């Protein structure tokens, strides 16, 4: 009988709402480290820097990038 799943990593575990607020503070001129501490974001400074340079900083995805676009995947399903 299988046991209960226990997550092995803490990746992508910060609260998305706090992350959004921290990114907004950084855009308003607050330093990255201060914003991370203010909202209890337990991620590295590099993560906040990466999110600032992304086109859509709120989106996060673990794993590899998809090979096909969603439209092409729908066509392949048919």
UniProtKB/TrEMBL annotation:
This is HTH psq-type domain-containing protein. It holds the Pfam family HTH_psq. Residues 51-78 are annotated as: Disordered. It comes from the Eukaryota. GO terms for molecular function: DNA binding. InterPro entries: HTH_Psq (IPR007889). Residues 15-61 form the HTH psq-type domain.
């Amino acid at each position: 009988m299988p046991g209960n799943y226990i997550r092995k990593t803490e990746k992508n575990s910060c609260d998305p709402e706090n992350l959004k607020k921290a990114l907004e503070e950084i855009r308003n001129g607050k330093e990255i480290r201060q914003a991370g501490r203010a909202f209890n974001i337990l991620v590295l400074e590099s993560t906040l820097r990466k999110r600032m340079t992304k086109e859509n900083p709120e989106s996060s995805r673990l794993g590899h990038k998809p090979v096909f676009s969603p439209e092409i995947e729908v066509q392949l399903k048919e």
